[in-house]
């Protein structure tokens, strides 16, 4: 009896699930020496319809909660005839699954190999459980060689949290199993990898790719100066992938300049995994349509919106056995665009506009915090650390000087004028000389 490798044997080598027909689809692509990135819209729609129907059948058979939701909304059988019909499938709200570890489970608990949790900053965490096959077979089936040009010669430094959240371990698997790359599991300043050691390791092993958050990429820039490590010389990255926090284009440009390499945004979540990623053109995120179906809905009415209409991002996972997400309301805002990208990828483009609850109400209008950051970061005399404080609809900006000869008063006046010109909003400015740094998620907005 091969008891030692029981889990591997059951869950991977001989695992069979509702996803097997999709494995055949991707094998076929491999045989034709093509990838899902460049298939026609119609071919990808056919794939997605098939994947959605396999998922609907799977949840109908194996999950009481999903089944009753479908039955209550009039489904007599778990299938749709065309993709537009997906809008008749009920949406899934975070609150329904928050703190409940089995509600969406569609397999025997002993099949589960890995549990991930959301950070739960706004209440109880959301648990997502994966089978080993989910993570080591199905998740790796779709290949996106234009979006991810990484290869065996790359050394990827993963500076994301490894505890419970998906991103750290997710990128670790992607780099190792999809590209055969070497991984430096840096985490974010934990006990085994303080910042100086992390930078030292990146230098020692000649890291070529860094995956981290915008604020940690900024922190590493400052610390490299302190520890005498020259970015672009001692550490020569080919690219940085940013995830976990939103970030504006100007913040990105400043990081590109400091690190001397391309910086791309990646959008994903612990619940849904990888959702979309930027190509080199940096004109929005290509949806990872092998993994997910993305829809945009009106956040109030729930009605599905058309291309170019802004609303809430709703995600259906296509390659999940353990705990599929069907029409999951992300709470993020954005819009979809048909791809006419110079990179040649035909997958839709997603434009992110931030989280619903973090929209800023100023002068009776709603503003995305990225837009404010975008304008603020145009001023080279301030650092990458700042706070927006909203009090009764008034904006106060706390900013920190950076390599500038301006006095505090001059700098404050410059920021006030710039924001008024760019945004049309009068704000107060306070110059601070030591805004706090963080190893966690950066908090930049305070609403009083
Ligand atoms: Zn592109």
Automatic annotation (TrEMBL):
<dbReference type="Pfam" id="PF00501">
    <property type="entry name" value="AMP-binding"/>
</dbReference>
<dbReference type="GO" id="GO:0016874">
    <property type="term" value="F:ligase activity"/>
</dbReference>
<keyword id="KW-0436">Ligase</keyword>
<protein>
    <submittedName>
        <fullName>Phenylacetate--CoA ligase family protein</fullName>
    </submittedName>
</protein>
<feature type="domain" description="AMP-dependent synthetase/ligase">
    <location>
        <begin position="91"/>
        <end position="316"/>
    </location>
</feature>
<dbReference type="InterPro" id="IPR042099">
    <property type="entry name" value="ANL_N_sf"/>
</dbReference>
<dbReference type="InterPro" id="IPR045851">
    <property type="entry name" value="AMP-bd_C_sf"/>
</dbReference>
<dbReference type="InterPro" id="IPR000873">
    <property type="entry name" value="AMP-dep_synth/lig_dom"/>
</dbReference>
């Amino acid at each position: 009896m091969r008891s030692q490798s029981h889990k591997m044997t059951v869950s991977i080598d001989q695992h069979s699930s509702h996803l097997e027909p999709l494995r055949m689809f991707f094998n076929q692509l491999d045989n034709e020496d093509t990838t899902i990135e460049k298939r026609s819209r119609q071919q990808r729609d056919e794939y997605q319809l098939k994947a959605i129907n396999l998922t609907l059948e799977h949840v109908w058979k194996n999950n009481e909660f999903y089944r009753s939701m479908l039955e209550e909304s009039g489904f007599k059988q778990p299938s749709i005839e065309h993709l537009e019909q997906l809008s008749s499938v009920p949406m899934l709200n975070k609150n329904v699954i928050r703190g409940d570890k089995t509600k969406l489970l569609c397999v025997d608990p002993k099949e589960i190999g890995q549990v991930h949790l959301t950070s739960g900053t706004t209440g109880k965490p959301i648990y997502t459980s994966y089978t080993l096959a989910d993570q080591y077979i199905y998740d790796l089936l779709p290949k996106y060689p234009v979006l991810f040009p990484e290869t065996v010669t790359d050394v990827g430094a993963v500076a994301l949290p490894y505890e419970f959240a998906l991103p750290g371990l997710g990128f670790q698997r992607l780099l190792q199993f999809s590209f055969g790359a070497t991984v430096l599991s840096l985490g974010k300043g934990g006990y085994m990898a303080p910042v100086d050691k992390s930078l030292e390791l990146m230098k020692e092993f000649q890291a070529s790719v860094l995956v981290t958050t915008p604020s940690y990429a900024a922190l590493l820039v400052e610390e490299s100066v302190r520890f005498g490590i020259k970015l672009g010389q001692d550490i020569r990255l080919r690219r940085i992938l940013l995830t976990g926090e939103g970030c504006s284009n100007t913040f990105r440009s400043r990081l590109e300049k400091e690190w001397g390499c391309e910086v791309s945004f990646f959008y994903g979540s612990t619940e849904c995994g990888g959702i979309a990623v930027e190509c080199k053109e940096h004109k929005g995120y290509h949806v990872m349509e092998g993994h997910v179906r993305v829809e945009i809905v009106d956040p109030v009415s729930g009605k599905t919106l058309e291309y170019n209409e802004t609303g809430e991002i709703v995600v259906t996972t296509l390659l999940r056995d353990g705990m599929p997400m069907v029409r999951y309301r992300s709470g993020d805002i954005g819009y979809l665009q048909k791809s006419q990208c110079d990179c040649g990828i035909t997958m839709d483009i997603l434009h992110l506009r931030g989280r619903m609850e973090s929209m800023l109400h100023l002068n009776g209008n709603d503003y995305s915090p990225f837009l404010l950051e975008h304008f603020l970061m145009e001023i080279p005399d301030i650092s990458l650390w700042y706070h927006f404080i909203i009090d009764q609809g008034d904006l106060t900006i706390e900013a920190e000087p950076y390599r500038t000869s301006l006095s505090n008063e001059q700098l404050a006046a410059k920021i006030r004028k710039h924001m008024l010109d760019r945004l049309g909003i009068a704000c107060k400015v306070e110059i601070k000389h030591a805004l706090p740094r963080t190893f966690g998620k950066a908090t930049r907005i305070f609403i009083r």
